[in-house]
Amino acid sequence: MSTEVPRSDPPRQVPRYVSAREMYAKRNRTLFMYTSAVIVLAVGVTYAAVPLYRMFCAATGFAGTPVVGTGKFEPERLVPVEGAKRIKVHFNADKSDQLPWKFTPQQKFVTVLPGETSLAFYKARNTSSEDVIGIATYNVTPDRIAPYFAKVECFCFEEQKLLAGEEVDMPLLFFIDKDVLDDPACRNLDDVVLSYTFFRARRNALGHLEPDAPEDVVQASQGFADYELAPKAEVRNAAAVEKSPPA
After folding, report:
1. Separation between Cα atoms, residue 132 and residue 76, nearest integer Å
2. Where are the bilayer-spanning segments (predicted)?
């Protein structure tokens, strides 16, 4: 005779009710994560805006910005077009009044054939009794030559530190792409002016070096004087506050 042990039912699980405090805490954590992600994204966009804008100008020649870093540097393109008309490239040098340097081109001009590389030099001397960091902007005129004016090597947008009394030569290697011969707008172009402007450098809120000058002055040195610039974020925010109706 077998004796069966009665089976006991598993204990019933009591449903757990989430308290209002836990619910709000979870919602706040989610909101905090989304807000943090938006802030990080906004900071990243702000950080990348200027470099991306410069890359766009350098890639397209927009507003007189010479082209840099594109496929134009293929060896077969760096061949002078014999029989083509030579183009005279003039060199200009400017500097901010706040920069205690003497900055001059070593040559007034050179003449080049389309596709021909040319080496030019600028000279900079620190006339002060302290070390100074400078940073240069550039542009080329007339604007229509910019897509074809390519710089292989230059000193623009890079930190240039000169010790007290130091004098240095700054090389510039460039060429005018031979595609300029196919552009009707450049058919009668004989002269080009390449301008560099040196500013004293300062560090912005992100710790990066930038020209120590008003924004409109810096933009004008890059050939954007005739373009309407969008106001900075702080200016837009202040204007929005002024226009908002009183509470």
Report:
1. 41
2. 31-50
